[in-house]
Each structure stands twice: as structure tokens, then as C-alpha cells.
């Protein structure tokens, strides 16, 4: 009898210890996620400030068709703020706020991405109209091809996401299979958006003075830093939303592209 009571006391103490440790781990992860959130904010605000500094200091601000050179200013501004700053938040929001209800996060995710896509679409329209006014040809550079590809893929991804993950009648089995592709394609769109921004900066830097070139180089470096940071957050398995599937990875071996092979742990780590 005494042995049983002693064992029960030990088990209870062990259970209480495990609860305390779990609470400590949750608190630590919560602080870590808030740190990630603020790093993301600082990077996005910094990118926006650098872009606007370039526009107002070296491009004389904004206008429309009365001055095609100043009309062009809408294009880089809305692309950086929309398809880099806002879109980066959209792709990692499930990682940073896991305590929120998933349906609420889905609506926020959809809204952020819709705003980012609308800004990207307006940026594309602005540069097309600017080139029409100036009598220039369209889509002659690698930058333009990558940018249009990113926006086109984004449109398909957004519509597919709404149909699969927001409409209640979509089969659960289909959502489970599609989520890995949704994450993978979202990351690819973000990569393409940053590549488009960097190649656009390269095109603009060749026409400016030394001060402008330096500013654009700094902007390009922080675009790459933002890309690496947000891909890290997206790929970190321990940041997944608690209601996410236990495995969130492409349904094929990344090296062999063989659907029958055991998938690599592309979206998981050893944490």
C-alpha cells in the first residue's frame, strides 16, 4: 500500500513537472514568434522606406500620364510594398500566430494576399500605361517576364486557395493533398517576386548616379535578406499551426520527383 502511494506521488510530481516544462516551452515559442513578427515588420518597413526614399529623392515622386517617368514610380513602390512586404506576411501568418483560430487566420491570409495581388496588378497596369504613353515596347526584359509570371501564378494560386480552403464543400482529402502544393507554390511566388524586384532594381541602377546606385544596392540586399528570413519561417516545422497536418511537405521526393519514393523532409526539421 505504501509502495503504491509513493509511486502515485512520484507519478503526480512527474506529471506536474511535465506540465510546467510544457508551459515554459509554449512561453518560449510564443516569445520566439513575436520576435519573428517584429523582425518581419522591421524588414517590411525598411524596404518600404528605402523604396520611397528612392522615389522621392531620385524620381521626383508620383504622377500619372502627364509625366511618364514619374508615373513609373507607382510600379516599384506597389510591387515592393504589395508583392514583397504584404505577401511575405501572408505566407507566414499561420507560423507566427498559431494561437489564433485557423478559420480567422484563413480570412486574414486571404485578405492580405488579395491586397498584395491588387497592388501588384496596379503596379503592372501603371508600367504598361507608362510605356504606352512613352511609345515603348512591352515585355522585352527578363525582369518583365519574371514579374508577369509571378503575378499570373499568384492569381491562379489565390483562386485555387479560395476554392479549396475557404469553400466548405471542398473534400477534406483534397485539401489535405493540396496543402503541401499550396505552401510550395506560395514560396515559389515569393521567390519570383523578389527576383523580379531585384532584376528591376538592376535595370534602374544602371541609369542613375553613384548615390542612387548605392541606395538601390542596399534595397536589393534587404530584399534578399527578407526572402531568406521568410523562407526560413515558412520551412520551420516547429512553427506550424497546431491544427496543421503532422506532415506538410511536397508529395514526391524532391530529388527524384518520384511520387512513389519517400519524400524528403523539405518542410520538416529535427526540432
Automatic annotation (TrEMBL):
Gene3D superfamilies: 1.20.120.1770
Stated name of the protein: Uncharacterized protein
InterPro entries per UniProt: CYB561/CYBRD1-like, Cyt_b561/ferric_Rdtase_TM
Cofactor list: heme b
GO cellular component: membrane
Keywords on record: Electron transport, Heme, Iron, Membrane, Metal-binding, Transmembrane, Transmembrane helix, Transport
Membrane topology of this protein: Multi-pass membrane protein
GO MF assignments: metal ion binding; oxidoreductase activity
Amino acid at each position: 500500500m505504501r509502495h503504491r502511494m509513493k509511486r502515485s506521488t512520484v507519478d503526480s510530481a512527474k506529471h506536474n513537472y511535465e506540465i510546467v516544462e510544457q508551459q515554459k516551452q509554449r512561453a518560449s515559442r510564443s516569445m520566439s514568434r513575436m520576435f519573428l513578427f517584429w523582425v518581419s515588420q522591421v524588414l517590411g518597413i525598411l524596404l518600404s522606406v528605402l523604396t520611397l526614399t528612392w522615389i522621392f529623392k531620385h524620381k521626383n515622386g508620383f504622377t500619372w500620364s502627364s509625366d511618364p517617368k514619374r508615373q513609373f514610380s507607382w510600379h516599384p513602390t506597389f510591387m515592393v510594398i504589395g508583392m514583397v512586404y504584404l505577401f511575405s506576411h501572408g505566407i507566414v501568418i499561420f507560423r507566427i500566430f498559431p494561437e489564433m483560430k485557423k478559420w480567422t487566420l484563413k480570412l486574414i491570409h486571404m485578405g492580405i494576399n488579395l491586397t498584395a495581388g491588387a497592388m501588384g496588378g496596379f503596379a503592372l497596369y501603371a508600367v504598361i500605361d507608362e510605356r504606352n504613353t512613352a511609345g515603348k515596347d512591352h515585355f522585352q526584359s527578363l525582369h518583365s517576364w519574371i514579374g508577369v509570371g509571378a503575378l499570373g501564378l499568384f492569381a491562379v494560386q489565390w483562386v485555387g486557395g479560395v476554392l479549396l480552403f475557404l469553400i466548405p464543400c471542398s473534400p477534406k482529402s483534397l485539401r489535405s493533398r493540396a496543402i503541401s502544393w499550396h505552401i510550395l507554390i506560395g514560396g515559389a511566388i515569393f521567390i519570383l517576386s523578389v527576383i523580379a524586384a531585384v532584376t528591376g532594381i538592376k535595370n534602374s541602377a544602371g541609369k542613375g548616379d553613384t548615390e542612387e546606385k548605392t541606395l538601390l544596392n542596399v534595397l536589393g540586399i534587404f530584399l534578399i535578406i527578407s526572402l531568406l528570413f521568410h523562407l526560413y519561417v515558412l520551412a520551420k516545422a516547429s512553427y506550424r499551426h497546431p491544427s496543421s497536418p503532422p506532415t506538410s511537405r511536397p508529395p514526391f521526393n524532391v530529388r527524384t520527383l518520384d511520387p512513389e519514393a519517400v519524400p524528403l523532409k523539405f518542410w520538416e526539421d529535427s526540432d
